[in-house]
Amino acid sequence: MKKIHVGFLLSYDYDKLKLSIPPVYKEADRIFIAIDENLKTWSGNKFEIDSSFFDWLATFDTDNKIEIYRDNFYVPNLTGIQMDTRERHLLSLKMGIGNWLVQVDSDEYFLDFKKYVKSLRKFDRYLDSPQNHPIQISGYHIDIYKYLDDGVLYVKNTCKVLLATNYPNYKLARQSRERIVYVDSLTLHESLSRSVDELEYKLKNWGHREDVNPTFLDKWKRANKDNYKEIKDVFYLEPTQWKELGYIPTKDPVEIRAYFDKIEDMKVSKSFLMKKNFGQWFKHLKIFKLNKKVTFEKYF
Fold first, then answer.
1. 65-95 per-position pLDDT tens digit
2. Beta pairing class for 135-148 and 179-189
3. CA-CA distances (angstroms) from residue 28 to 3, 25, 269?
4. 29: burial class by Cβ within 10 Å (0-12, 13-18, 19+)?
5. Are the CB atoms for 256 and 186 separated by under 8 Å?
6. pLDDT, tens digit, for every residue of 151-189?
7. Which residues pair with 146 in a beta bridge?
8. How far apart are CA 192 and CA 204, in angstroms?
9. Where are the beta strands (DSSP E) in 166-273?
10. Exposure string (b/e) for 243-264, b if CB count within 10 Å is 16 or more?
11. pTM higher than 0.85 for the full model?
């Protein structure tokens, strides 16, 4: 118990796991990969996994840390986001309550997982009776909006990403609506930075497919290095959540990380974290006094 367990959901974009698993491998005690036993997306569409992926996985897993978890994750009478939530819950049970349950999407790449683990360890006391004090440990996304021929467009604000919990009382995807502890940890997020065909396929098959705003895809297709300053409100759900885009003249991952190290607007300050964490502590102190009962959402 009290291990660092990392979980991934494998679907149509499984090849991105070759980028998201390596940054967490050394510091993770175990890694779990959830795969629908019938190879179906949350829309019920079939996908295939090239055998070379499993060859790569076997070669890469030198410490024998990785476990494949197969189950039926497609439930026709549930919405996409309900299936998303259900699969994450089942995966967390497989990972084992009493450990840190870190769920990373295939298109999320930790910049410094060792630093994130160090932050988690400060809260190990919450693993003793997790159902009594459920918390989530949030880092921040740097969202890569779109790859161009000679660079990338990115979203000019970081946003929280709920990565770890001690108790998987999920209500909406990785959101448990319990107390959040914010830490200075960044992940690159390639959710939208795909080819047109890949993005359109994703929008039809992911958990948020019913909620995508109708203006999103047109803005995404039009955006380039000449007009990105004029394109505003670009988030795929509530548009104003992502107000502006920035541009970096490289597509090399190492160079991209070096650029973000120099961009002050993309850094998370200590004062910002202190304010956010005090607000969460005070808010959930009151909620805990009112209602100590914690239950799992029922999607079974």
1. 999 999 999 999 999 999 999 999 999 999 9
2. parallel
3. 8, 5, 27
4. middle
5. no
6. 999 999 888 999 999 999 999 999 999 999 999 999 999
7. 153
8. 13
9. 179-189, 245-248
10. eebbbbeeeeeeebeebbeeee
11. yes
Which of residues 267 and 145 earns the better pLDDT score?
A: 145
CB 91 within 8 A of CB 32: yes
Q: For residue 268, what are its two tokens?
A: 């998370």
**C-alpha closest to that of 21 among 105, 117, 145, 141:** 105
pLDDT digits (tens, 9 = 90+) for 213-244: 878 889 999 999 999 999 999 988 888 989 99
Position 250, amino acid: T
| 140, 110 contact by CB (below 8 A) | no
For residue 160, what are its two tokens? Answer: 């929280």
Question: Residues near 184 by Cβ (< 8 Å), separated by ≥ 6?
Answer: 115, 119, 139, 140, 268, 270, 273
Cα 88 from Cα 104, distance rounded (Å): 10
Question: In which band, very low, low, confident or very high, does the pLDDT at 267 lie, cut at 50, 70 and 90?
Answer: confident
Q: Where are the domains of the chain?
A: 4-265
Q: For residue 295, what pLDDT is reported?
A: 57
| Alpha-carbon dihedral sign for residues 213, 215, 218, 222 | negative
Find, among 97, 114, 123, 141, the residue nearest to 296 by Cα.
97
Would you tell me how many other CB atoms lie within 10 Å of the CB of residue 225?
Answer: 17
Q: Which CATH architecture has domain 4-265?
A: Alpha-Beta Complex (3.90)
CB-based contacts of 185, cutoff 8 Å, min separation 6: 110, 111, 112, 115, 116, 119, 139, 140, 163
At position 290, the amino acid (one-letter code) is: L
- The residue whose two tokens read 């770890």 is 164
Diameter of the chain by CA atoms? 55
| Nearest residue to 107 via CA among 234, 12, 215 | 12
Give the number of residues written for the chain.
300
